[in-house]
Design a protein that fits this description.
heterodimer, A: four-stranded antiparallel sheet, 0% helix, B: mainly beta, 53% strand
């Protein structure tokens, strides 16, 4: 199957700082990537759809100025959590789309102190 | 009513048992059905995918789709402790365009040695 990587796998930051998470498709090109958030023992919550070369589409209730998404190339999408607060602490997972399927990255655990 | 319903479990079975995991859905437009396995603190891993109705088998795993009943299943034969994980079903109406997956809440499975 297709391989998707995320970096970093874990990050701890102070409240008020910004954190960037990278999502890469390693052996294929993805015009569309997705960003999800997952709370403990809960399912995946779609945050936004990232399209290469255009603006991301955010789900209802997700602040686009808070969660900045950039999909600059066919293999890289980035999610920047701006001015992070403790309530932003969560597990962030990206996926990359190939026709019909999504392949997920390993996730990034963010802890905001 | 949620679009996709999945029993969260936990489901505990002895090693070697046949496991049946299920999802029901309400949207008749769904055409693509996926099963993902997610280990704790990891991203989801694609296990099986099926288009429309029918069965698909891959090793110890069998996926079934019954569109008339809006019901999908994943069977695991000869279950192993390494199968202990959360299993997520996902569905989509199409492969092209701006489609999104609709996920179940996930079923936590524990296979006891």
């Amino acid at each position: 199957g297709a391989v998707v990587s995320q970096h970093p796998s874990r990050v701890i930051c102070k409240s008020g700082t910004s954190v960037k998470i990278e999502c890469r498709s390693l052996d294929f090109q993805a015009t569309t990537m997705f960003w999800y958030r997952q709370f403990p023992k809960q399912s995946l919550m779609l945050m936004a759809t990232s399209n290469e070369g255009s603006k991301a589409t955010y789900e209802q209730g997700v602040e686009k100025d808070k969660f900045l998404i950039n999909h600059a190339s066919l293999t890289l999408s980035t999610l920047t959590v701006t001015s992070a607060h403790p309530e932003d602490s969560s597990f962030y997972i990206c996926s990359a789309r190939v026709p019909g399927l999504q392949y997920f990255g390993p996730g990034t655990r963010l802890l905001v102190l | 009513q949620k679009e996709v319903e999945q029993d969260p479990g936990p489901l505990s079975v002895p090693e070697g048992a046949i496991v049946s995991l299920n999802c029901t859905y309400s949207n008749s437009a769904f055409q693509y059905f996926m099963w993902y396995r997610q280990y704790s603190r990891k991203g989801p891993e694609l296990l099986m995918y099926t288009y429309s109705s029918g069965n698909k088998e891959d090793g110890r795993f069998t996926a079934q789709v019954d569109k008339s009943s809006k019901y999908i299943s994943l069977f695991i034969r000869d279950s192993q402790p390494s199968d202990s994980a959360t299993y997520l079903c996902a569905m989509s109406p199409a492969t092209s365009g701006t489609y999104k997956y609709i996920f179940g809440t996930g079923t936590r499975l524990k296979v006891l040695a």
